[in-house]
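Submission sheet (multi-component)
Chains listed below:
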Amino acid sequence: MPPSIHPVDLIAALRDKSLTPAIVFLTSRRACDEAMEAFDHAQTVLPPARQEAIAAALERVIAQYPSIAEHPLIPTVQRIGVAAHHAGHLPSWKIAIEELMRQGCLDAVFATTTLAAGVDFPARTVVITQSSIRKARDFMDLTIGEVQQIAGRAGRRGKDYVGFAVVTPSPYIDLGVLTKGFTGNPEAIDSQFTITYPMVLNLLKAHQHNQIQAILAKSFAQFQLNQRAELLERKLDTLHLQMEPFGPRVCTDWITQWHTFDQARRQKSHRHQTVRHEAPEMTARFHFLTPGRVVGLNRGRGVVLRQYRSKGQKSPMVTILRPGGAVTECPAGIVTEIYDRIFDCEEQPGYPWCTAASFDELHYQLTELPTRLPVLPILVSKESEPLPDAIVQSLGDFPCPTCSSRSACQKDYLIASRMRQEQQRHMKSIQALRTSLWHRFQERIDVLQKFGYLTPESQLTADGEWARLIRIDHSLLITELIRAEAFTGADPAVLTGIMASIAHDDDRPGAFPRISSGLSSLLGQVRKLAESLSPYEDPPLLRADIAAVAERWVSDPNLTWIGLCRSTTMAEGDIYRLLARTLEFLSQLHTLKATHPGLADTASKALALIRRGVLEELP
Amino acid sequence: MTTDELAQLLAQQPVAILHRLARGRVQRHFRAGKRRLIDMLIQHSTNNLAGLESDLQALIEERQSRVQTPVPPANPVPPRQTAPHTSRRPTRTHEPESTEPGVTLTAWLEGLGVPTPQPFVPDPWQEEALAGLAETDVVVSVPTGSGKTYVAVEAARRAMSENRTIIYTSPLKALSNTKFTEFSKIFGSDQVGILTGDRQDNAQAPILIMTTEILRNLLYDAASGEIDVRLDTLGLVILDESQYIADPERGVVWEETIIFCPSQAKLLLLSASIGNPQDIADWLTSIRPSPCRLVRHSKRTVPLRAGYLHPNGKLTPLFRTAGIPYGHPGQLHPEAKRLFLQYEEDTLPSGRTRR
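Outcome: structure written.
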């Protein structure tokens, strides 16, 4: 089976059930174009009457916008009654298709999902082939709101009783996303408030520094943050209620008191543990197991040659000379009796741990020992090592050990302390929610002060006065470029090139015309500056090829639109949008006539040069 | 809470919660492991850790409450949601498989055709919005294609009769151009002007179409003392497609516009269906001189039917019922279900590979 239905079959199926006119949403522009190509060899053509109707309607649009007179898609559209409509087309072509659709001349339009949010023309049916959408270089599932936006195109008011949304699968479809989208409630929307440099400058121009917090508090962002804060406050209230039974006892802040007391106690018990793994008898005996001491073992007796602690052994160890002359290493626990008899023993660092002479002597003495020997009485003190003074002192400070509510405190401490931690966390969060916008604003002020657009008292400097008029993306980069006089002496074409590369934010690859050396060296400077500004503002892409396209259009007044399009692989719609956006950026520079007459003059020349051909004809 | 504490708290949560947090924050989060997911979440919201944290708390809370009450109360309708048929069920609820067969294709296709032209009668919600606008600001949240333009045009007409200036803004230049043509046809071309980033026609006309950015700039200039007569006589500001307030890049412009909008002008926010229009209305009430009126409904003017077209050309209804079973995404038509499963089996033999 094919991974997805062939466009010709799709349209045939829709026509068969009279579900036309339809909008078919496809994943990409390329898919739209390929769908149109698929109709090149299709057998089904429209009856002549309808072909003429399309031709007549197109004629009327062409009269208004001559640039689409030779559009390569026109023959197919006329023959088949199907068209493509996406961002790669010129706005005039899109207007023409919308007009045809409104008049009911077309059976289907292949469109990308971006259309759903943009221009509205309804149809009887929408066909959905995907469940994800390309957003910022990545694919994301459609939200419920987006599915309903797409489905909203189905059903024309006054022309249809019902609208149809038809799902046809393609390899990247998730039916669950779509069914949820059809049947669900749209998502709640969240504020996307960001604080921009022009916003800071304009606010400080019109208001005092101390009034601004009140203005920020009026934003939807703060409204939503407040909602969250209120939620947390309600939680805090319930926590307060829950904490009431654990309220002040003998001491007002018993949780802290108990916490410190508990810490101190833990420290104590911790010390006990290190001692506990040796029996107290053992510890007491150990002092007497010195070299030369006669000890009783399970079988026979022996003389201690040395005692030591080994890392490999749990208990302290002794080396014992046995009656047969054997030297054994055994744990101190093996010693059953300690006799009141010590022989002289000359110690030596190596085996057999005493000099040869004393070894022989000891060996001899051991065999000569009487059968009964007095046993050394060893007192085992139950008293363990005393606590360090500091802790004894601090425990004495606490009322807890003798307090009447001690057992209650001990029982409740875990729950109560957890609740109090939660309380503190909520309070911190509420604080952050209430003040985060203002902090962000303050950060921006700091940056602007650093660059000299604001005085330390947050008044606008002379530079700030004009910089506030630049209200576009990458405003900091542009104003810094102007201050660095990067544009002095630049001709309109170079200025256009730079502005285009700043304005363009799409990274679709492509092949583009050569760039002039003047523009390329200036662009290098711009890149360096953008790099150095990157901690304060995200740098634009600054593509040289984009700059070259815009530069060519301005520098060569004889260049036709077709010529420009042939010099690059960019779609015409993209070129149009690039130039339109560049126009916007340049007209912002044009507003600086009072302070930068030279630059404003160059900008207005560039504006005049851009506005020709297609760009003049279109709204 | 510091970043470290937050990271710890996140690490304690089950991955499902992290994925829910990541929706709309992190792209391709479903591919990331838990630790990477936490990194990405924190990295994404370095500027708004508090927001992330409170969302997390809400999710934890929700989870806890679900654990405590395994059987949710039947149809929990939050008090704000007025539309009864769209009340959302918990997504995991098991849909009882009804045994009755789904609707037939012929029944599904019934009603196809062109209705006879009827005289235009405004819907009740349109009347309500216009009546509300006579007194105060209005937020309209209705499905796509229900006739928001009618409200805009009528409101503009009424404001014009009081010799007031009207500003109509839309997010896209193309939309502005379409509306300019449309309004010129209705009010006459000398009554309508357009201001976009690169176009200025008839800029002193009583009805001005512009992109929202331009209006924001006008308001900034007015705030800093540059007098613009158009703002003095301003009686109505219409913000079309105002769900753009949630646009990551441009949403801030809508907020600025609404904050700085002169208080003598009425605001009319037209938006597609969104989940929390009441929030927007409450917000407007809190910052504007008079309490804002919310007009919402979720019923489409032209009812919708969903179908499934198999690559072999077979068409079936998508759901058991002819209309959309709102709130019940699991009620698929048995035939559509069978065909889709077959499709998945045929095209993805070795498990799902999604981009």
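Remark: The longest strand of chain B covers residues 165-170.
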